[in-house]
Amino acid sequence: MTTAPPRPARTTAPGLFRAFWRWHFYASFLVIPILLVLSVTGLIYLFRFQLEPLLHPDLMTVSAPSDTAIQQPYANQLAAVEREYPDATVVSMSEPREDGRSTVFSVTTDDGAARDVFVNPYGAEVLGSLDPDRTVSGIAVLLHGELMSGTVGDLVIELGACWAIVMALTGYYLFVRGWKARRRRLAKGATGARLRSSHGVVGAVVGVGLLFLLVSGLPWTGLWGAKVQELATAQGSSLWSEDHGALSDPTSSLDESLPHSHSVEVPWGMGESEVPRSTAPADGEEGRSVANLDTAVLAAADAGLRHPMTIALPADEEGVFSVIGYAFDAPSDERTVHVDRYGGEVVSTYGFDDYPVLAQVVAQGIGLHEGRSFGTWSMVGTTLMCLAIVFSCVTGPLMWWRRRPSRSGSMGAPRGRMPLRASPLLLVGLVALGIFLPLFGLSVLAILLLDQLVVRRVPALAGWFDAA
After folding, report:
1. Which residues lie across from 346 on neighbouring strands?
2. Highest mean pLDDT: which of 108-122, 255-269, 447-461?
3. Which of 32, 72, 94, 160 would be a feasible disulfide site paired with 124, CB 3.0-4.6 Å?
């Protein structure tokens, strides 16, 4: 009777490979739908200035009546909007982005709803209005930020982003360690080998960009962003900025002084900046407001702001004209000029150079995230990035579908457990990631408890989830 040779002990590397593969596999069930939504809505937002005029040409595109035609003063265009919507409050105006585009006035109706009103700048005639949340790009913004579900949607997006970071990191490990095996399968012409190779190569290329997009988007999130802002404030810094040039107690921040409108874009670093007050004439002193929209635009241009500008109108008798220079392709040029409504002088200016260092870093990251920091190159790069992410989200499930077991009563997930006891460095890394991404850390604890207390104790569930 011969005895079988002893089976070689399993080394740490294969166990780690299968464990990472398992995490990569199960994370995909949450991450893929989220990344598909973020990629598609991100593309829509990226091309919003090209897409919306095609969908609403009667409102957003205009033609000059002659070669010598000049645009009407903004004050005249404002008067036309006030005549057309006498019960609404005009809150801001956005200059035409280029020749052949309408002027956009954002108003709040008497029932509190926001509308974008479009005006022909040559004839000062009102062309119509839209609900900013019901345009294609408006819906894309709401889906991209919170799945149109408020706080719950924001948390789901943040959780998906956290696990997408884990997917990218584990994906790089699988790509490097599985390189030789994929090459052998590809050489043999194995079923699905080409798809797996393409998925790995595209993922390796897009991974760095994906990690950047995910991390640069975290400041918007309700949990991570708010907590990091608290920590930054405690250290005397900030993710955004406050306007220390304000001369009096503010009535609101710049964000709060504008309506909920996707035509009005406030630079990230200025959203929480304070709005100063105008100096009203003293009792008995003759004088009325001599400043209007045109005065404010001229004063801001003299102060160095770039066109097109967005102007927030005074909310009351002590309000100011807040002229926002968004500097679409250069976050470092972002500036806001506050113009006194009495006399039209500049009350204060605030811009990128006044941000805390952390806010400057975040502003530059968001410029790259939105594909606008380097003009056409950013647009092209971000577009390719989104398309590559969609490709990875499609090829991943296809790979599983081709290798899934038939009639086995399981999902066909890779079997493996994290060798945390044998790899202290891995344990430290996992804990550090859980601390850096609290929502991820909480979800990992919940998954581990569910796995140990439920899945592995119920044979049917253990078989279905391929528990090792």
Report:
1. 339
2. 108-122
3. 72
Q: What is the dihedral of CA 310, 316, 318, 322, to 10 degrees?
A: -10
Q: Identify which of 217, 263, 185 has the alpha carbon closest to the alpha carbon of residue 382.
A: 217
CB 175 within 8 A of CB 204: yes
CA–CA separation, 348 vs 247, rounded Å?
8
β pairing state of 309-312 and 125-130: unpaired
Contacts of 186 (CB under 8 A, 6+ apart): 193, 194, 197
- Counting other chains too, the contacts that 198-205 makes at CB distance below 8 Å and 24 or more residues apart are 198/395, 199/392, 199/395, 199/396, 199/399, 200/171, 200/174, 200/175, 202/388, 202/391, 202/392, 202/395, 203/168, 203/171, 203/175, 203/392, 204/171, 204/172, 204/175, 205/388
DSSP 254: T
Helix (H, G, I), strand (E, B) or coil at 104: strand
Distance CA 23, CA 46 (A): 32
The domains of the chain are located at 12-43+143-219+378-464, 66-138, 225-369
**Among 410, 396, 408, residue whose Cα is nearest residue 461:** 410
Q: How many CB atoms lie within 10 A of CB 152?
A: 10
User: What whole-number distance in Å separates Cα of residue 64 and Cα of residue 61?
Assistant: 10
pTM above 0.85, yes or no: no
Taking domain 66-138, whether its CATH number is 3.30.70 is answered by: no
Selection from 229, 222, 111 nearest residue 162 by Cα = 222
What lies within 8 Å, CB to CB, of 18 at 6+ separation is: 414, 415, 416
Instruction: State pLDDT tens for residues 48-104.
Output: 989 999 999 999 999 888 777 788 999 999 999 999 999 999 988 999 988 899 999
